[in-house]
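Session log. Operator J.P. requested a structure for one protein chain; no other inputs attached. Running the standard single-chain path with token output.
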Amino acid sequence: MKRAVRIATYNVHKCRGLDRRTNPDRIAGVISKLDADIVAVQEIVDAPNGRPEFDQVRRIRSKLTGYEICFGENRTLHGGRYGNLTLSRLPLKDCENYDITWRHRERRGCLRSDVVLPGGAVLHLFNVHLGTSFVERRHQGRKLLGDEVLSRGEYTGPKIVVGDFNEWTRGLVSRLMSQAFEAAEPRKLLRYPRTYPGVFPVLHLDHFYYDEHLRLSAFRVYRTRTSLLASDHLPLVATFEIP
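Structure written below.
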């Protein structure tokens, strides 16, 4: 029996929109419209004791129904934590954040969330935000695919790697990931594949990679008037069939 799971990736840019307003409630509204079982969020602040607009994780979760959360802190910001967040309507079994920082560059992470699927199988979802430097990404790509992260032997369930790879050409990371995983290629699958920057997107920075246990059945960029302003990225949404 096949089951379907809908997954989204969304760089929310600290909930700061292209209109320069920092508005977690607006981001929550976009996420709710995705109707995704799992949402991988990048660039989010968790500062509950600071200014209200930086209490982003709590405010977004309070606007959504039925989601568990897993947070991966990469550094501190605005008196709180800053990093990646995974929201799941399916049970979360375990979470782990991997440090993939290169030298003196900004701290970066890959957040693994183990999601329990109907029937008991575990889906390993990796929520990634790579650096902006070409040399930095080369290091991060190799580390990501090494024994410390994606190639660890205990991950026996299906794997999906999503997020902001900051790579708009076919660089080393794209080549390495495509050798190890199936790739959802927006240029091949979508008429309008670009996700960055919001109002007039010209680059494709956000990616989906998945293993042979999964079959991609639907794929789209979520483009609405609100999503075009809410962040400098547009969400990507994919539906997978899982045996």
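Operator note: Residues 198-202 have pLDDT under 50 and may be disordered.
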